[in-house]
Write a structure and sequence with these properties.
The chain has 206 residues and is of the alpha/beta class. It contains nine helices and six strands. The chain folds into two domains: 120 residues, Response regulator (Rossmann fold), CATH 3.40.50.2300; 64 residues, Arc Repressor Mutant, subunit A (Orthogonal Bundle). It has a six-stranded parallel beta sheet with strand order 2-1-3-4-5-6, sandwiched between helices. Helix 1 crosses helix 9 and helix 2 runs parallel beside helix 3. The relative contact order is 0.13.
Length: 206
Amino acid sequence: MVSNTVVVADQDEIFCEGFATVLARSGRYQVLASAHDDASLIEAIRAHRPRMVILDQRLAVAGVDQVQAAIPSARIILMSPERAPARPAAPAAGILSKSQDARSMMEALDLIADNRPVVIDEIGRKRPRVNRHPIPGPQALAKLSPRERQVLEFVAASYTSKEIAETLGITQRTVEVHRHHMLKKLGVRGVADLVKFAIRAGITEI
């Protein structure tokens, strides 16, 4: 049984469900529920009593106090839409920045789960900022080649480049080339944006 139980709360529903999918497929976190506003957040934590709550900073003004009141032992991780501040503000156990990719976020979460305070900027300082353009609609899938669609399916399922290469019988370098082409064709940046697009296009299920 996975001990790291999580509730994810973010006003951006696509990001919320996409990140919840990445967490669940890692095998290290059990996502009990997702929420998109204060009311659904409090309902979720009272019903499920998670060990960790990943909370959009826009919900944090009232949300942190309510989470602490309901579950004093819960570890609260804030999601910042921009570059994270230098230190997590009490009582947050850590701060993740949405400008970082999914792998950096998972590395930070693993440290937090091990009771180590984290600001993700200390891990991924030199990684690219989040793409400010909107995630394209399902029609953009037509821009991708059949092989790129295959690679996208595996990316959305949290496979590494090495695992994708072994499964498809191609080189890891070829996988990276396909990923680069997908990012360019779709006008997005990073794994998190690819997962969002895959959800929107119906390639992966939440």
